[in-house]
Amino acid sequence: LHIIIMRSVASSVARRVCATSRISSTRAPATVWGAPAHRTVATLDASKLHTTHTTSPKAMLPKEELVFGATFTDHMLRCPWDKSTGWADPAIVPFGPMEMNPASAVLHYAIECFEGMKAYRGSKGEIRLFRPDMNMRRLNNSMGRLFLPNFDGDEMLKCIIELLKLDKAWVPEGEGYSLYVRPTGISTQATLGVGPSTKAEVFTICSPVGPYYPEGFKPVSLFATSKYQRAWPGGTGNTKIGGNYAPTILPQVEAASE
């Protein structure tokens, strides 16, 4: 399987890469938001990735029946982190529930961030990613804003590519269809109280999708209002964290009633 990546370089040229080739540099800066970088014992290392194949492959829906974000592939990527030991070996495992302590900080203080990437199937069956290095860079920025650990973007992207290779059959064909790739960073520290996390995880799940809105590939109506503020100076509007999204549900419902 070939994966073609449109990289964020001056030439804007697509480079055909294999799993062993180097992806463009996406390492985190030494400091993020003025906070000292996390000094971990172990860095994220894609060469230590191990895979457990599902024993119960799921049936695939026809692409015309896909509802955005409701169908998921057979596998997921998990990358745990601990302050005392650093990044554990990354693992591709069968898609399924994740056991979590009910005191985990992500459940109480929204210490969570994510990215939205898409993998497309080309006319010759190749899988295409558009500027995934920038997704890794933004995810690292969001992680830093929440004082979650930064990671080597090159290594994370290599792991994600292996996940895509394993679940390549799930990438739908056709204009407007893609495999939505969702890397997510969370705090798994199981204590109450707001503070820097000592345990975290980045996991990635994938979902074959068509149009985002149920109306399909058609124009949608927009409603503008100054009643609510999603971003403000000094806030988190320039990061992709879960806390930016939940407060938008009420305005969405109100706009729909207008």
If you had to describe this structure to a student in words, what would you say it looks like?
With 258 residues, the protein is of the alpha+beta class. It is built from four helices and 13 strands. It has helices spanning 105-109, 132-145, 153-166, 249-257, and strands at residues 3-6, 14-17, 31-32, 35-36, 50-51, 75-82, 86-87, 91-94, 112-114, 117-121, 127-130, 178-187, 199-209. The strands form two sheets. Strands 1, 2, 5, 6, 7, 8, 9, 10, 11, 12 and 13 form an eleven-stranded mixed sheet that branches. A two-stranded antiparallel ribbon has the order 3-4. Helix 2 crosses helix 3. The model is unreliable at 10-38 (pLDDT under 50).
- Percentage of helical residues? 10-25%
Termini, distance in Å? 49 Å
How large a portion of the residues is in β-strands, by DSSP E?
A: 15-25%
Estimated radius of gyration: 19 Å
Low-pLDDT runs: 10-38
Shape type? globular
Largest sheet: 11 strands, mixed
Tally of individual helices:
4
Number of strand segments: 13
Mean pLDDT: 86
Secondary-structure element pattern, one letter each? EEEEEEEEHEEEHHEEH
Structural class: alpha+beta
Topology:
Elements: E1 3-6, E2 14-17, E3 31-32, E4 35-36, E5 50-51, E6 75-82, E7 86-87, E8 91-94, H1 105-109, E9 112-114, E10 117-121, E11 127-130, H2 132-145, H3 153-166, E12 178-187, E13 199-209, H4 249-257
Parallel strand pairs: 1-11, 5-8
Antiparallel strand pairs: 1-2, 3-4, 6-7, 6-8, 6-13, 9-12, 10-11, 10-12, 12-13
